[in-house]
Design brief:
four-stranded antiparallel sheet, alpha+beta, three-stranded antiparallel sheet, 2 domains, single chain, PH-domain like
Length: 147
């Protein structure tokens, strides 16, 4: 089997671009109004707007554009801006579960934890490979927990 590369699909990427653009425009608008008033409290307002309206969408942008997973019959590898590159061999997988609060799938071995967001394109292909490659007890427990 060739390597399968999983990335976020177009809708989350578009959402990140729209939020980042809107946040940047909004921050510039608030900053221009604040500069005219020359009020010391406006520095706090502009800083807060910059953090919320640009900072948070920037995090989404980085997640949706720079996170990827590479899967083959032997392992899954992850590349993210948030942590070092990780790799887990299917044969070494000790746990697979779904975190309903954070909406991601968690794969663990003795040293690594790889989290795959539910909005990543190609999850069905990932599950097919997992079903074939992960020990049946571990995968069946995952399926039972998903019910």
């Amino acid at each position: 089997m060739e390597k399968l590369v999983l990335k976020y699909s177009i809708p989350p990427k578009l959402l990140a671009i729209i939020l980042l653009a809107a946040g940047t425009i909004g921050t510039f608008f608030i900053a221009s109004v604040a500069i005219e008033k020359k009020d010391p409290d406006t520095i706090i307002l502009v800083s807060t707007c910059l953090l919320l309206l640009v900072g948070l969408p920037l995090l989404l942008f980085m997640e949706f554009f720079y996170v990827k997973y590479t899967v083959d019959n032997h392992k899954i590898s992850s590349s993210t801006p948030w942590s070092r590159n990780k790799e887990t061999k299917w044969s070494d997988t000790t746990e697979v579960k779904y975190n309903n609060n954070l909406k991601w799938y968690v794969l663990r071995d003795k040293t690594n934890t790889i989290r795959v967001g539910e909005m990543v394109a190609g999850l069905n292909s990932l599950f097919e490979i997992m079903e074939q490659q992960i020990h049946s007890d571990i995968f069946n427990k995952f399926l039972k927990d998903m019910e």
